[in-house]
């Protein structure tokens, strides 16, 4: 166990984690546009897509998280190494998906293998009694959370916000359960997501793509499992597991319930169509406060500060965005005259794509 | 927000009308355009760090308070009428009577701190009064030699540490209160054997081993000094900036609280407050003293320590009225030396 020498180095690492994605986003965006690494998930939907969102943010976030964290932490224990290696592998698989080099079933199968490997390597939920069932459950859970987080990437700014609000309580829990390296990694992850949010905020200039989404989901889920496994005397990791589950589920449902966008600022317009008038950023802050509040409650319940009934307001906090969204009455779509947008940053291939039209 | 997305030309309008439409569609546009992203990121950073700080703070506090042992029945049978009253001038402080064992190599590593109640004869190797003056921000630790020849209520003259096996914490508290006329607010049991391992945590070096006891009072005083050095090292370790070495301070705090048990009436938040305030004190505001000793002598074939009545009562008076700063200024030689 390494006792961190000075926080000044760690603070510098967190700042670096914040700055790397923030600074590199624009070059990455241009690179992605040049090499056609853009969001076009399904052929039938491309027709309606009016904006081009480059995918390279995931790589930025992975680099921004791991490079400062590992540079400062130095040696990490075997379990954390397994978690990081698994997350990176899943991120690389996601990147290959972004490049459209591998098919979805293959990617899923590989992810499931990574989750199984991790579960066999003692990163487990400890929910059910027979060991093999627990391994299966854990693997399925990690797989589910990883793919749920991937969905969040579709709405502007939602993924970094959700990750940030989930990773910070997890980091606090990891610190208290005597796993400072994991705590530090999660703090760096949250910082990298904050830096990335600068460019992912609505309207987004760059998205994480499958690489970032799967990496985020996998890392968060595996961290929650590690905290759950820590088996600390006065700390029960189950509320943290429930937090991650509910954040992933509710946000994925929010994304799925809202019909897929037809307009440029689709996240916004979709919500407006549901009668939501908060605006995209206020909605994100709403989401952030709900998730963060629930994370805080989960951490306090885990530590025994608040008794278990505290999970009820926690569940409500996470579910509030969903409830609010579902209660909205649909209103007519907004008029079609959309704001004019300058195109000076769109580089050549994308411009030709636009001029040529997407409806080939 | 220059160029995030490229819309097709059929929806183009004039810039002014476009902007008007936009303003209509999204309410709450009070921030300039360029600042909106930064504002959002700022909000995320702010909320995340706030919940991180709150969660860590509460979790650590709860872990620590939970790990402190509890002793029941400390103030049972004490008649409030006969107890000394707290000096109104010194109302903002508290006096703790701390006892402990320093038997290194005892099996106390495995036993929780509260279980010390089972071993009364080992418990009173250390008897100290801890006076925390909240108003002036000072902490004074006054050790009473265990072999002090004192008047124990209902039992007559005997060694101070004999009061504990005879009547438990209440009798010891009565004895000390009668001796010093200080009102004891709380009672604490410290495991010095565990404390030594925490010192190793704090300073990354082995602490000076207290001399093994041969029963002579002179060695008793030397032992008291080494115990006080251990205590000072722990306090100095806790006083480190938690931002500099967060994990080390946390480990030390956890280890310290595991070596300590307090009476049940000591509320967790009060205890936390005391710990946090004591850790913030500068080193020159923490005084370690030994009750003034006149001589060592023999009473009924027992080797005992006679306290210096005059100087001792001056010390008790200083503790009662929280004027220990003056006392220390007058008697600088009685302070614990800076190095072990």
Q: Any chance you could write out the topology, listing elements then pairs?
A:
The complex is a heterodimer of chains A (360) and B (340).
Chain A: H1 7-34, H2 43-46, H3 57-73, H4 78-98, H5 104-120, H6 131-152, H7 158-176, H8 180-200, H9 209-229, H10 238-257, H11 266-273, H12 280-303, H13 311-327, H14 348-356
Helix pairs in contact in A: 1-3, 1-8, 3-8, 3-9, 4-5, 4-9, 5-6, 6-9, 6-10, 7-8, 7-9, 7-10, 7-12, 9-10, 10-12, 10-13, 12-13
Chain B: H1 15-25, H2 33-67, E1 69-71, E2 93-101, H3 120-123, E3 126-133, E4 138-143, E5 149-152, E6 156-159, H4 163-180, E7 186-191, H5 192-203, H6 217-238, H7 246-258, E8 260-263, H8 268-280, E9 286-290, E10 293-299, E11 302-307, H9 309-320, H10 324-330
Parallel strand pairs in B: 1-8, 2-7, 4-9
Antiparallel strand pairs in B: 2-3, 3-4, 5-6, 7-8, 10-11
Helix pairs in contact in B: 2-7, 5-6, 5-7, 9-10
Explained architecture:
The complex is a heterodimer of chains A (360) and B (340). Chain A is mainly α and 360 residues long. Chain A has a domain at 7-236. Chain A contains 14 helices and no strands. In chain A, helix 3 (57-73) packs parallel to helix 9. The N and C termini of chain A lie far apart (59 Å). Mean pLDDT of chain A is 79; it is low at 1-5, 42-49 and 260-269. Chain B has 340 residues and is of the alpha/beta class. Chain B has one domain (68-334): Aminopeptidase (3-Layer(aba) Sandwich). Chain B contains 10 helices and 11 strands. In chain B, strands 1-8-7-2-3-4-9 form a 7-stranded mixed beta sheet, sandwiched between helices. A two-stranded antiparallel ribbon of chain B has the order 5-6. A two-stranded antiparallel sheet of chain B has the order 10-11. In chain B, a hairpin with a 3-residue loop joins strand 5 (149-152) and strand 6 (156-159). In chain B, helix 2 runs parallel beside helix 7 and helix 9 (309-320) runs antiparallel to helix 10 (324-330). The longest helix of chain B has 35 residues, at 33-67. Chain B starts with 14 loop residues before the first helix and ends in a 10-residue tail after the last helix. The model of chain B is unreliable at 1-28 and 104-118 (pLDDT under 50). Classes of the chains: A mainly alpha (360), B alpha/beta (340). At the A-B interface, helix 7, helix 8, helix 12 and helix 14 of A face helix 1, helix 2 and helix 7 of B.
């Amino acid at each position: 166990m390494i006792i961190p020498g000075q926080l000044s180095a760690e603070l510098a690492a967190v700042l670096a984690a914040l700055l790397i994605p923030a600074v590199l986003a624009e070059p990455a965006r241009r690179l992605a546009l040049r090499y056609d690494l853009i969001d076009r998930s399904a052929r039938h939907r491309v027709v309606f897509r009016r904006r081009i969102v480059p995918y390279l943010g995931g790589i930025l976030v992975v680099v921004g998280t791991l490079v400062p964290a590992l540079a400062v932490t130095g040696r990490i224990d075997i379990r954390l190494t397994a978690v990081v290696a698994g997350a990176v592998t899943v991120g690389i698989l996601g990147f290959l998906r972004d490049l459209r080099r591998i098919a979805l079933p293959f990617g899923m199968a590989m992810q499931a293998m990574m989750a199984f490997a991790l579960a066999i390597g003692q990163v487990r939920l400890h929910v059910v009694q027979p060991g093999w069932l627990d391994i299966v459950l854990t693997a399925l859970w990690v797989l589910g959370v990883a793919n749920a987080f991937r969905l969040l990437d579709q709405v502007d700014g939602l993924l970094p916000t959700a990750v940030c609000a989930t990773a910070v309580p997890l980091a606090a829990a990891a610190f208290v359960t005597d796993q400072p390296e994991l705590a530090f990694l999660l703090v760096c992850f949250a910082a990298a997501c904050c830096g990335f949010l600068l460019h992912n905020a609505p309207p987004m200039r760059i998205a994480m793509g499958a690489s970032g989404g799967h990496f985020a989901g996998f890392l968060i889920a595996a961290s929650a499992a590690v905290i759950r496994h820590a088996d600390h005397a006065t700390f029960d990791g189950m509320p943290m597991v429930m937090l991650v589950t509910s954040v992933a589920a509710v946000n994925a449902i929010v994304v799925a319930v809202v019909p897929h966008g037809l307009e440029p600022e689709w996240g916004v317009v979709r919500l407006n169509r549901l009668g939501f008038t908060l605006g995209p950023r206020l909605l994100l802050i709403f989401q952030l406060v709900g998730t963060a509040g629930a994370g805080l409650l989960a951490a306090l319940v885990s530590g025994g500060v608040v008794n278990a009934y505290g999970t009820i307001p926690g569940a409500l906090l996470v579910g509030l965005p969903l409830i609010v969204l579902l209660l909205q009455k649909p209103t007519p779509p907004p008029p079609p005259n959309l704001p004019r947008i300058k195109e000076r940053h769109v580089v050549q291939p994308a411009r030709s794509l636009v001029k040529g039209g997407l409806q080939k | 927000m220059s160029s995030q997305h490229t819309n097709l030309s059929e929806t183009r309008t004039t810039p002014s009308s476009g902007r008007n439409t936009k303003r209509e569609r999204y309410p709450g546009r009070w921030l300039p355009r360029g600042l909106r992203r930064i504002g959002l990121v700022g909000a995320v950073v702010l909320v995340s760090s706030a919940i991180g700080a709150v969660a860590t703070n509460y979790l650590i506090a709860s872990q620590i308070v939970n790990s402190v042992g509890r002793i029941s029945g400390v103030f049972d049978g004490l008649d409030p009428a006969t107890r000394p009253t707290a000096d109104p001038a010194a109302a903002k402080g508290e006096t703790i009577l701390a006892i402990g064992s320093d038997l290194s190599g005892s099996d106390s590593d495995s036993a929780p701190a509260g279980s010390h109640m089972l071993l009364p004869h080992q418990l009173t190797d250390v008897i100290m009064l801890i006076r925390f003056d909240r108003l002036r921000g000072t902490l004074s630790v006054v050790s009473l030699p265990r072999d002090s020849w004192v008047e124990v209520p209902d039992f007559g003259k005997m060694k101070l540490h004999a009061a504990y096996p005879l009547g438990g914490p209440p009798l010891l508290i009565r004895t000390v209160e009668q001796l010093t006329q200080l009102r004891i607010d709380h009672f604490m049991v410290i495991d010095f054997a565990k404390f030594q391992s925490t010192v190793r945590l704090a300073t990354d070096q082995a602490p000076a081993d207290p001399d093994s006891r041969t029963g002579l009072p002179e060695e008793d005083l030397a032992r008291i000094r080494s115990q006080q050095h251990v205590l000072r090292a722990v306090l100095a370790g806790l006083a480190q900036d938690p931002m500099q070495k967060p994990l080390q301070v946390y480990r030390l705090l956890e280890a310290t609280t595991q070596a300590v048990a307090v009476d049940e009436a000591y509320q967790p938040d009060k205890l936390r407050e005391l710990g946090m305030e004591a850790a913030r004190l500068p080193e020159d505001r923490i005084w370690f003293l030994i009750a003034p000793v006149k001589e060592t002598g023999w009473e009924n074939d027992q080797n005992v320590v006679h306290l210096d009545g005059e100087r001792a009562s001056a010390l008790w008076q200083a503790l009662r009225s929280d004027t220990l700063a003056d006392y220390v200024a007058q008697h600088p030689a009685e302070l614990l030396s800076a190095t072990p």
